[in-house]
C-alpha cells in the first residue's frame, strides 16, 4: 500500500479540537456548544406529533389528548409534518434547478455564461423536441432552457424526464398516482394538502410525499444537473485533494460554500486570472487558493479539480483556521453562525443570493448579468483582506488526502467500457458494469448520500459503512457531504482499492478507479437515478430488482427527505441512520418502512446502529441477487 493510510475520524476530531481552542481564544461560538444547549430535543418534535398549522393550536398529542382541537389524530399530524418537510426539500432543490435554467437562458457567445457541453445540449434538445437543425447553438440553448422552465408549471401531463425511466417503473408510478406532474404543482399541492382541514389520511399524505419527491429527483434536481453540465461541462475523472489541509497559509484563501455552481464557477474563473494572482502577490500572498465546502465544493471539484476543504459540519472549521480571507456563499446548508463567527476573525462572510440573506454578512447580489464583475470584486475583496490576517490565530491542520473525482454517468460508462469479457459490442452502455454484478465480482452497489448531523458522530457513519461495504465487494457511488467524508478519509484515492474485497479490487485495478465514485452534489443524485434507469433498461430487469440500495446515514435537511422519497419512488430501498420524525405514528411508520413497497417497489429502513445498518444493506443486496438467480 506504500505510504497510503486512511485518515481516521479520531484524527479529524483532534484537528477540530485544536481549532476550537483558537475559537475559545477569540470568544467564538460553535455548533458543538450549541448542540449542548439544545439537547435533549423536544420529544413532541422528535416524534412528529406537534401540529402548529393553524392558530387554534399548537396541538400536541399525548395519551390524555389523542386529538388536536380540529379532531386530527396523531397519524394525520405526523403524515402532514412529513409531507411539509418533503415539500420544503423538493422546493429547495427545484428552485436551484430553476436558477440554472435561467442561467442557461442568459448564456451567450462571449458572455459570462456559455455553452460548454454542446453535445449534452443537443441531447436535451432532442428529449424536449427542440429543433436543432441549422440553428445557432445559443438559440437552441435558450429554447431548451425555456422548455425546462415550462416543466415547473406545465398544466397537463407528467414530467418529461420520466420518459428516461424503464417502462415498468413509470407505469407503476402512474398507476399509483405517484408520477409527478409539474414540479411547482407538486410542491403547491403538498402545501394545499397539509393546510388545516385538508388531508389527514396517512396513505394520501405519504403518496403525495413520494410524488413531490419525484418532482424533485426526476424534475428540478435533474434539471439542475443536466443544465449545469451544459453550462459548465459534464464531469470527467479528475484529481483533487480533500480536507482542511488544502487551504494554504501562504495564499489568499477563498472558500466557496453552498450549492449553485453559477457563483462558484465564476469565483474560480477569476481566482485563476493572472491579473488577480499578480494582485495577490502585490498584497503579500504567494497566490490564491480556492477551496470548497458542501455541495458547491462538489460541483467545482467534479469539473475543475478544486480541492474540498470540508463538508457540512466543517464549515465553521474553515473560518477557525484563521486563514480564510473570504467565505463566499450562495444558497442552502449555510450556518447563520458564520456571520458572528467571521466577526471573531478577519474573514469576510459574503452572501450573494436574495434567497439566503444573513445578518453580519456582506451582501453582493449575484445575477447572470453581473456575475463576472461581481466575482472579480469578491476575489479582490478577499485579496485586500489578506493583510488583515492575525498571524497568531492562523493554524491550518496539516491533513489532506488525494482523491479522484468526476464520475458522472457518462464518465462511469466510459471508464468501465474496458472491464468486459463480452463478445458483443457493449460500448457506451452499462453492460460492462452489469457483467461485473451478474458474475458476482461485484455483489452490488450502494448510493451513499446526504449530510452530517451532530446526532451521529460526524463522518463516522459514512466512512465506516463505506469501509464495510467495499470490503464486501460492493461498489459505492457517493454524493453530497457523504462524498466529501469519503474523500477526506482517503476512500477516493485509487490506492484505497487495497481495502476492498478481491472482486472490487480487481475492478478498481482494471478500470483504474477508486472504490468510492464521486458522482457530485446532491442535485446530482439525479445522475444516480439515470444510472439505475440505464442499468434496468440494459438488463431487462425492474429497477427494484437490481442489487442496489441507497443510504443516508447522517442526513439532516428537508432536501434529504425529498431525496429519500424519490429514491424510494424510483424503486430503490433506502436506509437511514437518523429518524425522520415519524415515530409518533405507527401507521406512517408502517407505510414508509413497508406499505410504500406496493406502490413503488421499495421502502425505507431506519437503523441508528451503524453496524446493523451496514448488515441490513448487505443482506438486502444478497436477497435481491438471490431473487434474480445470480
Ligand atoms: Fe447540505 Fe448539499 Fe446535506 Fe451536505 S449533503 S449538508 S443537504 S450540502 Ni446535500
Ligand atoms: Fe391543532 Fe388541528 Fe390546528 Fe393542527 S390543524 S394546530 S391539530 S387544530
Oligomer: single chain
Give the rounded overall mean pLDDT. Answer: 97
- Helix content range of the residues, please? 40-55%
Instruction: Indicate how many domains the architecture comprises.
Output: 3
Portion of residues in beta strands equals 5-15%
| Terminal residue distance | 32 Å
Please identify the structural class as seen in this structure. alpha/beta
CATH topology of the largest domain: Rossmann fold
Strand order of the largest sheet: 6-5-4-7-8-9
Main beta-sheet strand count, sense and barrel state: 6 strands, parallel
Q: What would CATH call the architecture of the largest domain?
A: 3-Layer(aba) Sandwich
Number of strands: 16
- Note poorly predicted spans: none
**Count of discrete alpha- or pi-helical segments spanning 4 or more residues:** 24
Secondary-structure map:
Elements: H1 9-25, H2 31-38, H3 43-47, E1 50-51, E2 59-60, H4 74-106, H5 118-128, H6 137-150, H7 167-175, H8 183-193, H9 202-232, E3 238-242, E4 252-257, H10 261-271, H11 274-282, E5 288-293, H12 294-304, E6 308-310, H13 315-320, E7 326-329, H14 338-343, E8 348-351, E9 362-363, H15 371-385, E10 401-405, H16 409-416, H17 431-438, E11 444-448, H18 460-471, E12 474-479, H19 480-489, H20 502-511, E13 516-520, H21 525-539, E14 548-552, H22 558-569, E15 574-576, H23 586-600, E16 604-606, H24 610-627
Parallel strand pairs: 4-5, 4-7, 5-6, 7-8, 8-9, 11-12, 11-14, 12-13, 14-15, 15-16
Antiparallel strand pairs: 1-2, 3-10
Helix pairs in contact: 4-6, 4-8, 4-9, 4-22, 5-6, 5-9, 8-9, 9-21, 9-22, 9-23, 10-12, 10-15, 18-24
The structure holds FE(4)-NI(1)-S(4) cluster (XCC) and iron/sulfur cluster.
Amino acid at each position: 500500500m506504500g505510504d497510503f493510510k486512511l485518515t481516521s475520524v479520531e484524527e479529524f476530531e483532534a484537528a477540530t479540537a485544536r481549532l476550537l481552542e483558537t475559537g475559545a481564544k477569540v470568544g467564538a461560538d460553535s455548533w458543538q456548544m450549541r448542540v449542548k444547549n439544545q439537547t435533549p430535543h423536544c420529544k413532541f418534535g422528535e416524534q412528529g406529533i406537534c401540529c402548529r398549522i393553524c392558530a387554534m393550536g399548537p396541538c400536541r398529542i399525548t395519551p390524555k389528548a389523542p386529538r388536536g382541537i380540529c379532531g386530527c389524530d396523531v397519524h394525520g399530524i405526523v403524515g402532514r409534518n412529513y409531507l411539509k418537510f418533503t415539500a420544503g426539500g423538493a422546493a429547495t432543490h427545484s428552485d436551484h434547478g430553476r436558477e440554472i435554467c435561467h442561467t442557461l437562458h442568459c448564456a451567450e457567445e462571449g458572455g459570462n455564461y456559455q455553452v460548454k457541453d454542446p453535445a449534452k445540449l443537443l441531447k436535451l434538445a432532442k428529449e424536449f423536441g427542440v429543433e436543432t437543425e441549422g440553428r445557432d447553438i445559443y438559440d437552441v440553448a435558450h429554447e431548451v432552457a425555456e422548455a425546462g422552465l415550462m416543466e415547473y408549471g406545465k398544466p397537463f401531463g407528467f414530467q418529461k424526464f420520466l420518459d428516461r425511466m424503464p417502462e415498468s417503473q413509470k407505469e407503476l408510478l402512474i398507476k399509483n398516482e405517484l408520477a409527478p406532474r409539474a414540479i411547482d404543482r407538486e410542491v403547491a399541492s403538498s402545501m394545499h394538502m397539509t393546510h388545516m382541514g385538508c388531508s389527514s389520511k396517512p396513505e394520501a399524505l405519504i403518496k403525495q410525499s413520494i410524488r413531490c419527491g419525484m418532482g424533485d429527483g426526476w424534475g428540478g434536481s435533474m434539471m439542475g444537473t443536466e443544465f449545469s453540465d451544459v453550462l459548465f461541462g459534464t464531469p470527467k475523472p479528475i484529481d483533487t485533494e480533500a480536507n482542511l489541509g488544502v487551504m494554504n497559509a501562504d495564499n489568499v484563501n477563498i472558500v466557496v460554500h453552498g450549492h449553485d455552481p453559477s457563483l462558484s464557477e465564476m469565483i474560480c474563473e477569476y481566482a485563476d486570472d493572472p491579473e488577480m494572482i499578480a494582485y495577490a502577490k502585490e498584497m503579500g500572498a504567494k497566490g490564491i487558493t480556492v477551496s470548497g465546502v458542501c455541495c458547491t465544493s462538489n460541483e467545482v471539484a467534479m469539473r475543475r479539480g478544486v480541492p474540498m476543504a470540508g463538508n457540512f459540519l466543517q464549515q465553521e472549521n474553515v473560518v477557525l483556521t484563521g486563514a480564510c480571507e473570504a467565505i463566499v456563499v450562495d444558497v442552502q446548508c449555510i450556518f447563520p453562525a458564520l456571520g458572528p463567527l467571521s466577526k471573531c476573525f478577519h474573514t469576510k462572510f459574503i452572501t450573494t443570493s436574495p434567497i439566503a440573506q444573513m445578518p453580519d454578512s456582506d451582501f453582493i447580489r449575484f445575477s447572470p448579468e453581473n456575475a463576472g464583475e461581481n466575482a472579480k470584486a469578491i476575489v479582490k475583496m478577499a485579496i485586500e483582506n489578506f493583510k488583515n490576517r492575525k498571524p497568531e490565530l492562523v493554524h491550518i491542520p496539516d491533513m489532506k488526502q488525494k482523491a479522484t473525482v468526476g464520475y458522472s454517468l457518462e464518465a462511469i460508462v466510459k471508464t468501465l467500457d474496458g472491464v468486459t469479457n463480452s463478445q458483443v459490442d457493449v460500448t457506451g452502455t452499462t453492460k460492462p458494469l452489469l457483467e461485473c454484478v451478474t458474475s458476482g465480482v461485484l455483489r452490488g452497489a450502494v448510493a451513499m448520500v446526504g449530510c452530517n448531523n451532530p446526532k451521529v458522530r460526524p463522518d463516522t457513519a459514512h466512512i465506516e459503512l463505506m469501509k464495510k461495504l467495499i470490503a464486501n465487494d460492493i461498489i459505492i457511488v457517493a454524493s453530497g457531504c457523504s462524498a466529501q467524508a469519503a474523500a477526506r478519509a482517503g476512500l477516493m484515492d485509487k490506492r484505497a482499492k487495497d481495502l476492498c474485497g478481491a472482486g472490487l479490487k480487481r475492478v478498481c485495478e482494471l478500470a483504474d478507479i477508486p472504490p468510492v465514485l464521486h458522482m457530485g452534489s446532491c442535485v446530482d443524485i439525479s445522475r444516480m437515478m439515470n444510472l439505475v434507469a440505464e442499468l434496468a433498461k440494459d438488463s431487462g430487469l425492474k429497477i427494484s430488482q437490481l442489487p442496489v440500495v441507497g443510504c443516508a446515514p447522517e442526513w439532516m435537511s428537508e432536501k434529504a427527505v425529498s431525496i429519500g422519497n424519490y429514491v424510494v419512488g424510483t424503486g430503490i430501498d433506502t436506509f437511514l441512520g437518523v429518524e425522520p420524525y415519524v415515530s409518533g405514528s405507527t401507521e406512517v411508520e408502517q407505510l414508509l418502512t413497508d406499505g410504500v413497497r406496493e406502490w413503488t417497489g421499495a421502502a425505507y429502513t431506519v437503523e441508528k446502529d451503524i453496524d446493523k445498518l451496514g448488515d441490513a444493506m448487505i443482506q438486502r443486496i444478497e436477497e435481491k441477487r438471490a431473487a434474480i438467480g445470480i
